[in-house]
């Protein structure tokens, strides 16, 4: 026992030595464009709250109504007695919002992706994943007992060669729609064409695209105008939609099979009904208020223009995620600390979240920010990088 404990202590010391040990910040305010940390108000560029809905009064009112009607907990797994009217309404609402035949509500995006890949995959399957996919897609592929083939980031030619060479009975391509640490968008139309040619599923994780992409903020499927029964679409509620949980949408038989066999759905207590109500309220807000998505797009353009004018080297990205590659972890921590001194909360992202040598600042923009916020951040970045 002592050796095991000492081993962990040594590993923690190694993280500290390599500038890779994480610490949690304690916020004394709701999530929003400004937060309170250690008695200071900071302009917050660290959150995935892309539409500023995490502390939206309309969502809060929907939660209060649901709390009065359905209580705090669902009390059981969905297939026992935990599927309440609030869950049913949210699933129908999400399917309609995204133009999908049917949807299923999961406890989290992580659980949803593991459920999808372990149900569709298996010993006779091969899963093809982008190297920069989110961890839950990598973990789902490994847990599925499928052959797992990773291809170079958004390399359609490499994916095509891998699919051509595959002898698997079942083929599954799994990808982020918006890559969470780079902000770029997967070429989904070309990927779907490959999947149709090679009789493969296309599993799309739109965690960072829902509420951001598409003319009306309906996500990557709207953005590209895509629809296909071979697509399985996952979108989370904890980012642009301001709540918690995840939906999976797709063809009716696909969703029914997930309902019957996805272990992360079948053997989990259903999401609290108040979170399902918050999801409906968020979808309603995005649908009736197109200015919300337009405002986010304005902030993205203004920030990128300000950075270009000041020589701040942001990666190419038209999404709310604007990364600045700095290389070593110590350098990312140093610049993040300088920004904190200037009143901006911008996280340093380090391995294993990103590859070695690519530690970065990850600027997350929100419709809740003002133009002055993003332009002042660009100036602070130019000063802090010097």
If you had to describe this structure to a student in words, what would you say it looks like?
The chain is an alpha/beta fold and 386 residues long. The chain folds into two domains: 22-52 and 290-385, Aspartate Aminotransferase, domain 1 (Alpha-Beta Complex); 57-288, Aspartate Aminotransferase, domain 2 (3-Layer(aba) Sandwich). It is 45% helix and 17% strand. It is built from 15 helices and 13 strands. A seven-stranded mixed β-sheet has the order 3-9-8-7-6-4-5, with helices on both faces.
Largest β-sheet summary: 7 strands, mixed
**CATH-assigned homologous superfamily of the largest domain:** Type I PLP-dependent aspartate aminotransferase-like (Major domain)
Question: According to CATH, what is the topology of the largest domain?
Answer: Aspartate Aminotransferase, domain 2
Q: What structural category arises from helix and sheet content?
A: alpha/beta
Shape: globular
Number of helical segments? 15
Order of helices and strands: HEEHHHEHEHEHEHEHEEHHHHEHEEEH
Strand runs, count: 13
Distance between the termini: 49 Å
Helix content: 40-55%
Strand content: 15-25%
Quaternary organisation of the protein chains: single chain
Radius of gyration (CA) equals 21 Å
CATH class of the largest domain, anyone? Alpha Beta
Q: Averaging pLDDT over every residue, what do you get? A: 97
Spatial order of strands in the largest sheet: 3-9-8-7-6-4-5
């Amino acid at each position: 026992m002592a050796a095991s404990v000492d081993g962990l202590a040594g590993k923690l010391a190694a993280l500290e030595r390599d500038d890779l040990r994480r610490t949690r910040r304690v916020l004394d305010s709701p999530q929003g464009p400004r937060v309170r940390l250690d008695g200071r108000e900071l302009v917050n560029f660290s959150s995935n709250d892309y539409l500023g809905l995490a502390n939206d009064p309309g969502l809060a009112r929907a939660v209060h109504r649901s709390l009065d009607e359905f209580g705090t907990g669902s009390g059981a797994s969905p297939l026992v007695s935990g599927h309440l009217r609030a869950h049913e309404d949210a699933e129908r609402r999400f399917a309609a919002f995204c133009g999908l035949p049917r949807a299923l509500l999961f406890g989290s995006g992580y659980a949803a992706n593991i459920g999808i890949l372990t149900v569709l995959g298996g010993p006779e399957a091969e899963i093809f994943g982008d190297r920069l996919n989110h961890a839950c897609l990598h973990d789902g592929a490994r847990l599925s007992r499928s052959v797992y083939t990773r291809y170079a980031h958004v390399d359609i030619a490499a994916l095509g060669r891998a699919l051509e060479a595959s002898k698997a009975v079942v083929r599954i391509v799994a990808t982020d729609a918006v890559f969470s640490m780079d902000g770029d968008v997967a070429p989904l139309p070309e990927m779907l064409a490959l999947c149709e040619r090679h009789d493969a599923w296309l599993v799309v994780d739109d965690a960072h695209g829902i509420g951001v992409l598409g003319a009306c903020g309906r996500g990557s499927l709207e953005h590209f105008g895509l629809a296909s029964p071979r697509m399985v679409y996952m979108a989370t509620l904890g980012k642009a939609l301001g709540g918690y949980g995840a939906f999976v949408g797709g063809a009716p038989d696909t969703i029914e099979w997930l309902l019957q066999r996805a272990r992360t759905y079948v053997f989990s207590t259903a999401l609290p009904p108040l979170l399902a109500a918050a999801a409906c309220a968020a979808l309603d807000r995005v649908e009736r208020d197109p200015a919300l998505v337009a405002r986010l797009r304005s902030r993205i353009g203004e920030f990128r223009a300000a950075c270009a004018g000041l020589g701040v080297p942001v990666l190419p990205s038209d999404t709310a995620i604007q990364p600045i590659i700095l290389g070593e972890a110590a350098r990312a921590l140093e610049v993040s600390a300088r920004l904190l001194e200037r009143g901006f909360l911008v996280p340093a992202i380090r391995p294993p979240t990103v590859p070695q040598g690519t530690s970065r600042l990850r600027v997350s923009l929100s419709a809740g920010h003002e133009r002055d916020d993003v332009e002042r951040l660009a100036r602070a970045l130019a000063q802090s990088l010097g």
